[in-house]
Amino acid sequence: MATTAHSLPFPLLKLKPPSLPKSHFRRTFVPKSTFNASPKRTVSSTTFSPTFPLNGARKSRHVAAKSSEADTGSASTPTSLGQTVFGALHLAVSLGLILAVDKFLKKAFVAAAIKFPSALFGMFCIFSVLVILDATVPAAATAVMGFFEPAFMFIQRWLPLFYVPSLVVLPLAVKDVPAASGLKIGLILVGGWLATLCVAGFTAIAVRKAVKTELVEAEPMGKPAPFSAIEVWTWTAVLLTSFVSALFYPTALGTSARTCLPFLLAATVLGYIVGTGLPSNVKKVFHPIICCALSADLTALAFGYLSKSGLEPVLGYYLTKASSNPGAGDILMGFLGSVILSFSFSMFKQRKLVKRHAAEIFTSVIISTIFSLYSTALVGRLVQLEPSLTVSILPRCITVALALSIVSLFDGANSSLTAAVVVLTGLVGANFVQATLDRLSFRDPIARGIATASSAHGLGTAALSAKEPEALPFCAIAYALNGIFGSILCSIPAVRQSLLAIVG
């Protein structure tokens, strides 16, 4: 017996006591309530032989999954096609409404002889409506924002294109400007950009230290979709077809400008698409907008050579400034008013951020705008630049759409030169802003964003926000407010007179 007991593979202490009553065992290990709560289940022999039933279940689930996949695949094509059509209609309606509002306001302001920028007034109106709706019926404000989201993203995606016409026709804008004056303008442009960036950045840092407002995360900003191969091939087909057609039928669409419009527009768009696809180290010195302008100019040069008309007439067809006979540049610049109107949506989206950091944003923008206008006038007089040219480059740090409205308030200004200088200022900022901010030890995203937008408007904003998305909200806010405050300031007769007095 002893030998048998010692040969057991487990200790005797782990055995259940044989004298334990059944009812006590149940109460100790399994609560009685458990048995009462759970339904009784009958265990059949099939439960312990799972081979055939489970295989059958697996097969049935596999067949059902295949059937579901087949149904989804058959329905995906019509669904995706329907979504594409609906998206295109949504974009057309929302963008069309913005363009219609812009045109209506322009006509109304011209009829009323109001010199204040009409698009700026429209932007204030849209922003006010959104704020009122958000305070009374938040769901309605959200619905309005959602409805116009496709138009806003379209404008954001193609924003640099709307600046290009000024660069494309730059040879026409500067042909009457003496070389010495051009050199002076270049010095004012580069030096003024750097000075304005420093003033805006250091002001933002000083106010930040004074108010000590904690930085919070901004509302996420949507990113435009990348360009597809279909877009590239479509625009290439338009370019080749219309180019050849215009060579053989110069007035096929009624006028030379209209006939040249399709291929010049296609060349501009293709140049931008190719430019955005260049490596980042190449884009540091060869901005996409430069590639865009060169593409249009080279196409115009080729057409002028093959048609024996010369470059200047073709560039004249590119930007006619006549609504009855528009060129490719007129079509693109026609969106500038909608760009200003779209500011209302970006400002509303970041309204909490504007309210929280109002001291830093408004102080920096106001000081940098005043500095930019008056320093340009003063330096222009010191270097003895012609007064008409100095007046033309006063709004060098303000976005093109509003800069053109500002110079229209001054007599004798060259609007083509204004647009070209504004775009060139943006190009300088786009290429050198990040390295300059690092060299100046601007670490705060608020200071970096405000300094960039205040000195290089939209192009600088696009360049910085691509690498520093945390600075994008402050760029967008300062970009809009800089143009708004500059327009309001120059709309005051006393301010205009003081600027003219400095210019001489």
UniProtKB/TrEMBL annotation:
Membrane topology term: Multi-pass membrane protein
Top-rank taxon: Eukaryota
Record keyword Secreted present: no
Localisation: Membrane
Gene Ontology cellular-component annotations: membrane
Keyword field: Membrane, Transmembrane, Transmembrane helix
Major localization class: membrane
Entry's transmembrane regions: 81-101, 108-133, 153-174, 186-207, 227-249, 261-279, 327-349, 361-379, 391-410, 416-433, 471-495
PANTHER family membership: PLASTIDAL GLYCOLATE_GLYCERATE TRANSLOCATOR 1, CHLOROPLASTIC, PUTATIVE SEROTONIN TRANSPORTER
Protein name: Antiholin-like protein lrgB
Organism: Cajanus cajan (Pigeon pea)
